[in-house]
Amino acid sequence: MCHQRKPMMTRHQIFLAFLYFVIVLIVLPFFCTEKVYSLYYQADDAKNNRTDLINNEHRKKGVREYLKQIDPKDSLTFHISKVSEPVDNLIVVMAKRPNKVEDLTLTQLVAEVDRNIRNQKLYRNAMLICNTTRLPFHELNHLAQFYPVRMAVNNTKWKLFNSEEVKKHDFVECLKQGLTYVNSRYITLIRDVVVPYSGFLGVVNHVINKRITSSLVQGELLKNDRPWLFLHLHEPVTFRQYHLSCECVREILLLTCSGALLFYLAFRWLEGPLQRSYVRVTYAMYGALYFFTFALVIGRPYVTELRRMAAELYRVYEPPKPIHFSAMVLPSNILPGLLAQLNLVSCSVYSPFHELLDHMVNTMELPGYVVSPSLVRYVSRT
After folding, report:
1. Is residue 210 very low, low, confident or very high in pLDDT (cuts 50, 70, 90)?
2. Between β-strands 184-191 and 87-95, what pairing exists: parallel, antiparallel or unpaired?
3. Closest-CA residue to 233 (of 201, 279, 265)
4. Quick one: how many helices (H) and strands (E) in the chain?
5. Rg value, the chain, Cα
6. Buried-most residue among 10, 96, 220, 237 (CB within 10 A)?
7. Domain segments of the chain: what residues?
8. What is the pLDDT of residues 218-227, one digit of tens each?
């Protein structure tokens, strides 16, 4: 009696093998050519410039409509009342006369901070604009109708040709403005070359209050008495790539195991619980292969974007190299000591401000952190 021989591969296995090559060779190259960090990225400066221009026009249109909906007098009264009382987090926006007036980067930044402050209920937040140009300009004059503005002190006439020293001076002066006019636990300092992501303030407050200054111990949120120096809100691109480290290996293992488990459960449901064990293992291996390939081909920066689903998923770590300052949070209680140390040293092209700021970690023996993924994005560079 002849027994019918069963095929070596099930129809689902054959389909998964075929689909894998279709996705890797056709689908991903088609959809990832514009993804800067993917393996299939193809540089097209003209197209990228058009895309940036369209995105900026969209943001400008949105911010104009937002300000039209707000009564200037009511908005100014609202924000002055905020800075008149103790707050958890004071956002100080460093405003400088723009090179391109039509970009409205400062307006986009301030409007997004305003939205976040109005939407935050758990923590008390306030905003102050610090004019580092020290002379009024049109965009700032318009914003001054809606938000409180302070003028930084000008004592940098002899430093006009030392841009790094000016950066340090603006940093120090805007922090002093925040300390002088508002009683706050933390100061978030943001340069007007970035725009925050939607909902960034909720993540900032969660990270500093429940990840850095507090931690979960046996299910209880306990206060961490260890002081810290700063938290960068922008993660450099060089930190986001896959490299040989425990963190990257752990991320890859987590993704591959998630893929294996997902495929195992999915095909167990499709084919029933009577399927042979080696076939289930094969499906799990396909899931691991799919997720591993997607992670490497698409690029870690895009995989990291999945952390935006919840504030608890954001990663906080000590940066391995100095980070250029664009946006950071500082505890108010350490600022007098930090400002005193910064006033003792000078910056130059050989000793830039961001390296000096990073060196304060060793000088003051306090840790500095960066959050991942970034909570702000660059829209222009100066």
Report:
1. confident
2. parallel
3. 201
4. 14, 12
5. 25
6. 96
7. 52-238+314-378, 243-298
8. 556 567 778 8
